[in-house]
Amino acid sequence: MGVLALLWGSTFLWIKLALGALAPVQVTLTRCILGAAVLLALCLRARHRLPHGRTIWRHIFVAAFFCNALPFAMFSIGEKTVSSGLAGVLNATTPLWSVLIGLAIGTEHTLRPVRLAGLLLGFAGTVLIFAPWAQTGPVGWSALAIIAAAASYAVGFTYMARHLIGKGIPTISLSAAQLIAAAGLTALTLPAGGLAAVHISPKSLSAVVILGIVATGITFHLTYRIIADEGATNAATVGYLLPVVSVALGAIFVNEALNLRIVAGMVVVLVGVGMTRRQQRKPSAAAAEALEAPHTAAAAANTLRT
Question: Considering the entire predicted model, what is its pTM?
């Protein structure tokens, strides 16, 4: 999860550099193609095949729509007027949406108080980092677009957990297939600003390659692994760690200022994520025997009476 947060959190840096040469649609399509290519190569190296069958591919295209096509479009609309700080807070609602969706459809059977407190604490830490009360400018429909993108990620994670995970298909095959589907869906939007001239440079080319291979391909595979191992809500919780990573990278590589409020927010986020990942304690063997003893004695007494 830490590696996923590091790779995903660096995505914003590579996107910013890539946009110096490519249009947003071109960046999206290129990263999907490169990510799909590297995962397909890894899939073939492991001697796995892509999923086959109309039903599974229909589910893959639905997941690609909610995890790629729709949120990318919504972020493009929203960030025209919404500040990056407010966008970061709204994007951090993904884990909360994931919990609500899971409870509604039954994939989240139980929600322990400590886990709920961790989710709320993580969101509070994200708000503290970005300080949306200090932001200015109009929001309105743009803010709703970003909230829709965050909810779309949660829907995608939940859909993947319910319809793609646990079907006997390796996660490397699923992640490769999803990025192939996402590339196909994104290609349909090329007429909407994706046919502009390209002005490539070594710096932007390097950013695009890293964005596609590492921050998209490897990231998607890790996302699938976490969903398969720990469920959609835990996978969505990585969204709380993205501000921590992006702020840390900004301070290290571009000398962005840090203050006490930001550092406190980062600590609160880490504590909250730790609470969501806290495992429920299992009773020890002695405790289990102590709990079982009265039932065993009662059963023996009933036998003697019989």
Answer: 0.75
